[in-house]
C-alpha cells in the first residue's frame, strides 16, 4: 500500500493539513503530546495512506514524540515524505529538513503558513530553495485551504518525485569518518548508499534512537570505528555545517526574491 508521511516541527500545521487531505476524522489541537502516536488516514478519493507523525525539532530524540519520528524513518519506507514547515521560521525548521533529506526518501518541502509570511512582507525565491535542497517546494495555507489542490496532485503523482541527493560539505575529517562508516555498512550489511550515509551521520551525531538501533543490529562499522573520534566535536561540526548552509540558502533566496530574479512567493 502506498503511504505518505507528514513530518515537521511542532505547530507547523501538520494536523491541519492531514485533516484537509484525509477522509478520516482526527482531532486538531496543539497540546503537546496530543499526537504521541502516529495518526493514519487515507487521502480523499484514493487508497493512499497518510500518516501524521508527532512534531519534532530534530531526529535525535529528546522526547517520546521525537523518538517516534526517528524510529519511523528507521523502520518504515514511506513512498513520499511531506516535510511541513512554518514559512516564517525556516532557519529553525530546515535543520530537521536536512536530517530528513539525508535519509534519501522522496520528499516535498511544504512552506506552510504562507499567509503569515506574506503579511510580514518577506519573500523567498522558491526555485533557489528547491535547487539547493534538491527537492520539490510547495507553499500552502493549510488553515485557509490554499495550495491543497496542487499538493494533492503532487501526492497522487508521488512516483515522479525524485529521491533527494543532498550532500552537505562537512569538514574533511568528519566527511572521512562518515564515508568509512557508510562504506562498511554498505559492504557488510547491504544498506543502500543513502541509508548507510544517513545512519553514519546520525550515529556520529549521537542520535540516541540510532545508537540503540546500531547496538541491537550489531552494526559494528558504527559501534567500533566511530567511537574513536571526538564525538562532541563532530556533533558540533554537523550542527554548524547545517546552520551555515541554511543561513546561506535563506540569505540568497531572500536576495533573489528582492531582485525579482525568478519565481517568488
Ligand atoms: P501541528 O502541531 O504541526 O500538527 O500543527 P496544527 O495543525 O495543530 O496547527 C497549529 C496551529 O497553526 C493551529 O492553530 C492551526 O490553525 C494553525 N495553522 C495551521 N496551518 C496554518 C496556516 O497555513 N496559516 C496560519 N496562519 N495558521 C495555520
Ligand atoms: Mg499535530
Ligand atoms: K479514501
Automatic annotation (TrEMBL):
It comes from Limosilactobacillus antri DSM 16041. Probable transporter of a GTP-driven Fe(2+) uptake system. Belongs to the TRAFAC class TrmE-Era-EngA-EngB-Septin-like GTPase superfamily. FeoB GTPase (TC 9.A.8) family. GTP binds at residues 8-15, 33-37, 52-55, 112-115. The lineage of its organism: Bacteria, Bacillati, Bacillota, Bacilli, Lactobacillales. Mg(2+) 2 binds at residues 19-20. It is found in: Cell membrane. Mg(2+) 1 binds at residue 22. This is Ferrous iron transport protein B. Residues 1-161 form the FeoB-type G domain.
Amino acid at each position: 500500500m502506498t503511504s505518505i508521511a507528514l513530518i515537521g516541527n511542532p505547530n507547523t500545521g501538520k494536523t491541519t493539513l492531514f485533516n484537509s487531505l484525509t477522509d478520516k476524522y482526527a482531532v486538531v489541537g496543539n497540546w503537546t503530546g496530543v499526537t504521541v502516536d502516529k495518526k493514519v488516514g487515507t487521502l480523499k478519493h484514493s487508497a493512499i495512506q497518510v500518516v501524521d507523525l508527532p512534531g519534532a525539532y530534530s531526529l535525535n530524540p529528546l522526547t517520546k514524540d521525537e523518538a517516534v519520528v526517528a524510529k519511523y524513518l528507521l523502520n518504515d519506507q514511506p513512498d513520499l515524505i511531506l516535510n511541513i514547515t512554518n514559512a516564517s521560521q525556516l532557519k529553525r525548521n530546515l535543520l530537521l529538513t536536512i536530517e530528513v533529506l539525508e535519509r534519501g526518501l522522496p520528499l516535498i518541502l511544504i512552506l506552510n503558513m504562507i499567509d503569515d509570511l506574506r503579511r510580514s512582507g518577506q519573500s523567498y525565491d522558491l526555485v533557489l530553495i528547491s535547487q539547493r535542497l534538491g527537492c520539490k517546494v510547495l507553499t500552502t495555507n493549510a488553515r485557509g485551504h490554499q495550495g491543497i489542490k496542487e499538493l494533492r496532485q503532487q501526492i497522487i503523482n508521488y512516483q515522479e518525485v525524485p529521491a533527494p541527493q543532498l550532500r552537505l560539505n562537512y569538514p574533511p575529517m568528519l566527511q572521512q569518518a562518515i564515508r568509512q562508516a557508510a562504506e562498511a555498512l554498505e559492504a557488510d550489511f547491504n544498506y543502500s548508499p543513502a541509508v548507510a550515509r544517513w545512519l553514519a551521520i546520525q550515529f556520529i551525531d549521537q542520535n540516541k534512537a540510532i545508537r540503540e538501533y546500531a547496538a541491537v543490529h550489531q552494526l559494528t562499522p558504527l559501534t567500533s570505528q566511530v567511537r574513536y573520534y571526538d564525538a562532541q566535536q563532530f556533533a558540533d561540526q554537523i550542527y554548524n555545517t547545517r546552520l551555515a548552509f541554511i543561513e546561506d540558502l535563506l540569505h540568497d533566496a531572500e536576495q533573489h526574491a528582492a531582485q525579482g530574479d525568478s519565481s517568488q512567493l
